[in-house]
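Please check this today:
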Amino acid sequence: MFAQDIMNTDITTISADSSVHQAIDLMVAKDISGLPVIDNDGNLCGLLTEGDLMRRIEFGGGRLAGNSDNASLVDFDDYIRSRSWRVSDVMSASVISVAPDAPAAAIAELMFQHKVKRVPVVSDKRLLGIVSRVDLLKAIVAAPKERTASGDDALARAIRARLQGDLGLETDAIKVSVQDSRAILEGTVSSELERRAIRVLVENVKGVNGFIDKLNLT
């Protein structure tokens, strides 16, 4: 599954020349926490989020440190962001974005690494859509289970193959049988965590309609 498959294309944007007041009105009206910012050529040039607005002077942010006559004590960037009414001054210009063919797993990793809630999908600087954390969660719910051949014997073979391929477990230590689509696993495992991983694996094999756990801890 790729960015183009899960992105939201119904996007509310704002121009870089707009005022912060206009941006806030849009965010409140649409009940959204961020706005992609578009330049005069229609290209994505930034992202304005609720986090960017938390340093506003109205909230007590952007205060001068010590004597305002001493420029070395002033954070000029913070001063601009907390006082300017131009979106271009307040937005985050460095935007983490992805291409339409970016895999969903790579997008999730990007969000985790950069601690962001949404990632714009861009092609040739043009904004195509937005992938949010909610979009990724929807993709997880919609993802089909592993496809396998039908029949108890085929299900048992699929489980054995997955035990070795996914978890690196030797199948001679775990006996796998399937009766009426219910998987029965017997043998020994080294930890409770290993037992849980096996359960998750079995539950994700399409066609399995039950799991009987006869595994013992060593």
The chain has two domains: 3-142, 152-217. The first strand starts at residue 14 and ends at 15. Residues 3-142 form a domain with the CBS-domain fold (CATH 3.10.580.10).
